[in-house]
């Protein structure tokens, strides 16, 4: 059995997918790389098959009709044979030295019978033209280099959310929790990292800069104008996440607080881009989203509204909307996203 399965969802990725594949090959024979060609119309398939011929014991190519990023991840998970599972987007890559360190640590943990449900490492915003690369670590939020539980976590800064880039889940846990990402929908990575959390009992954090998150293509899903254009998909994802768990039933108070905080972030993202779009229709959608949350789960609504993000998104009038836009621009400059 392989130690780690890395899935690379590819859609017309011929121009940049090799960097992702080459970086993962540094994991050696204990790595399983599954390239999912999600209905590409360029020569993605030919590039993937060429890699498969060169590395038949490491690389597998699966082709499917276009189903979107989430369906490609679903396919990768269904076919994964590694003990652990990671998603690497085709325009991103991993640091080879950090990957070797992570693989060695996972092997040691497994040998000691202490393998965690969720392994975490840092990620880096590889933003085009940025003078300094922004590293997202979990210092002061998570214990380092040891097995811990949700009750051991500390204070998460606003920038320290657990994202797909930082996670390596136990494959069996993902399969057992029944996660299924929706087809033809963007931003499903939020579901991927959020839905399994209550099933996670043990965690491990290694302070290495493993994942390199590329930002800079004009058509990228996290481009600000693209996100505004696709706001209905962001709204869909947020509602799926809200409905995925009754957070009052989460036994660990610290995990409950973290999941509330994550949903507050999702509500804020939707609200910000609806405000930035600025039309009457968009402002009505923002109002409807908050009313939906209140109808669906009044306890959760109150918890989110009590947080700074929740309060700031609901300051009334033009002044309130201006405050949101200014706050968003400052945050973007500080943390380097979009």
Detail the topology: elements first, then pairings:
Layout: E1 4-10, H1 17-25, E2 31-38, H2 44-54, E3 59-64, H3 69-79, E4 84-87, E5 93-94, H4 96-111, E6 118-127, E7 134-136, E8 147-148, E9 167-170, H5 171-176, H6 189-194, E10 203-215, H7 224-229, H8 231-244, H9 253-277, H10 280-296, H11 298-305, H12 308-312, H13 317-335
Parallel strand pairs: 1-2, 1-4, 2-3, 6-10
Antiparallel strand pairs: 4-9, 5-10, 6-7, 6-9, 8-10
Helix pairs in contact: 8-9, 9-10, 9-11, 10-11
What does this entry look like structurally?
Helix 8 runs antiparallel to helix 9, helix 9 runs antiparallel to helix 10 and helix 9 crosses helix 11. With 338 residues, this protein is α/β, with parallel strands linked by helices. The C terminus is likely disordered. The protein has 13 helices and ten strands. The radius of gyration is 20 Å and the shape is globular. Strands 1, 2, 3, 4, 5, 6, 7, 8, 9 and 10 form a ten-stranded mixed β-sheet that branches. Strand 6 and strand 7 form a beta hairpin.
């Amino acid at each position: 059995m392989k130690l780690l399965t890395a899935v690379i969802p590819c859609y017309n990725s011929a121009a940049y997918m090799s960097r992702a594949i080459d970086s993962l090959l540094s994991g050696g024979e204990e790595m399983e790389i599954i390239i999912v060609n999600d209905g590409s119309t360029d020569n993605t398939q030919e590039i993937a098959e060429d890699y498969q011929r060169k590395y038949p014991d490491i690389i597998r190519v699966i082709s499917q009709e276009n189903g979107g990023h989430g369906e490609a991840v679903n396919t990768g998970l269904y076919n994964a044979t590694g003990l652990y599972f990671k998603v690497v987007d085709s325009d991103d890559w991993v640091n080879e030295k950090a990957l070797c360190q992570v693989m060695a640590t996972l092997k040691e943990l497994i040998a000691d019978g202490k393998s965690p449900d969720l392994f975490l490492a840092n990620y880096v915003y590889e933003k085009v033209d940025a003078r300094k690369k922004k590293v997202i670590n979990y210092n002061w939020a998570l214990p380092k280099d040891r097995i811990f539980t949700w009750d051991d976590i500390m204070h998460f800064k606003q920038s320290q959310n657990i994202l797909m880039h930082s996670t390596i889940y136990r494959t069996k846990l993902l399969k057992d929790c029944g996660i299924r990402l929706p087809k033809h929908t963007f931003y499903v990575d939020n579901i991927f990292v959020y839905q399994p959390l209550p099933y996670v009992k043990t965690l491990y954090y290694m302070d290495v800069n493993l994942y390199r998150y590329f930002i800079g293509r004009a058509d990228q899903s996290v481009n600000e104008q693209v996100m505004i254009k696709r706001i209905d998909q962001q709204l869909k994802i947020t509602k799926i996440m809200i409905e995925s768990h009754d957070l009052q039933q989460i036994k660990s108070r610290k995990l409950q607080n973290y999941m509330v905080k994550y949903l507050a972030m999702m509500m804020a993202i939707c609200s910000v881009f609806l405000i930035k779009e600025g039309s009457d229709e968009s402002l009505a959608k923002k109002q409807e989203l908050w009313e939906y949350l209140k109808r669906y789960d009044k306890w959760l609504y109150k918890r989110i509204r009590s947080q700074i993000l929740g309060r700031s998104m609901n300051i009334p009038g033009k002044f309130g909307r201006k405050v949101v836009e200014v706050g968003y621009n400052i945050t973007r400059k500080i943390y380097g996203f979009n």
